[in-house]
Specification:
Elements lengths: L6 H4 L10 H8 L5 E2 L11 H10 L12 H11 L6 E4 L1 H13 L5 E5 L5 H9 L2 E5 L9 H10 L3 E7 L11 H11 L8 E5 L15 H6 L3 E6 L12 E4 L2 H10 L7 H10 L3 H25 L10 E5 H5 L3 H10 L2 E2 L1 E2 L8 E5 L3 H12 L3
Parallel strand pairs: 1-10, 3-4, 3-5, 5-6, 6-7
Antiparallel strand pairs: 2-8, 7-8, 9-12, 11-12
Amino acid sequence: MYPRIPDHVQTLSPYVPGKPIEETQREFKLKKVIKLASNENPLGPSPKALAAYKAAAKSLNLYPDASAFELKQSLSKLLKLPAEWFLIGNGSNEIMDLLMRAYYEPGDSMVTSQAAFVAYQVCAHVLGVKPIETPMTPDFRFDLKAMLEQIHQDDSVKYVFIANPNNPTGTWVTEEELDYFMQEVAKIRGGSVIVALDYAYWEYVTDRRIPDPMKYLKLYSNVVILRTFSKIYGIAGLRLGYAMARPELLAPVQKVRQPFNVSLPALAAAKAALTDKAFVKRAQTLNQQGLKFWMTGLRKLGIPFLPSQGNFLLVNVKEGLGLSGGEVFIMGLKKGVIFRPVTNYGLPGFLRISMGTMAENKMALKVLQGMR
């Protein structure tokens, strides 16, 4: 006999990652497979990060610096924020979990939007925090007014998660919208509701209507900003992210963090990646070229898509091809292209396509053309 499984674990739907290249090759007996499913950097890792990673391998017999002192100093210098305002995690996903774990009490709730990054719900479910989704706006954006109303009417809400831009939709909230939201939340329950602003794709943003999150960090004591090294810096495999918040808010989070939650090579690679401005610029340029290529190609095919400020597009294949996202996903696998169905986000007619190299983009678009 085993112990009874708690209800919040029994009902948990685990996070489903993008299908691996190796698995697709084995399953469909393919030599060449491209993956446009996980919003990874198609250029690979930052060269400076890779060099630092290799150098760090000589010290693998040592435990990493549990305080992440050097990385925090580098972030502090880059972002002009005191080092004690940073928390380093095993990917920003771990930080989401730690944040809720540190402040959790039975009966707590978390508010986010329909079709928000699913990790918010997973982290909440694991702890027994009740996840609440507010409907999206008709144009697939976070409805901050609806979220504000939910916080007003439900005293159990302790956490709010806002992705800007959001994954998988690629849509965003404007500075005007977020300004009003933050001002109003600050008036509720003494400003004790924690607002996590997830800016994982910030380095890809070009639309000036999207606000710099640092302004809210300086204005409000209840704000946590989440950032990652997985996207623009190309070191998703090392799992490293960071949070920025006032030291008083982070203090209990530090208490529940495991002492060696980030590996020595990851710390070294992340510190070096911050200095690789040329690589970041290359990645940004390639992303803009990819978005332009895909938007032009999709329009020619008559396949609708949502505007995006990330390194991906959410594509309406049901309207454009008469197929579900799952059907296009399977058809793509057989041709050696891994797309990302988003049925688990309540969007069965859509497909998320990450930006690849231009050669990968061209190959993937031809696969979609062949489905017409």
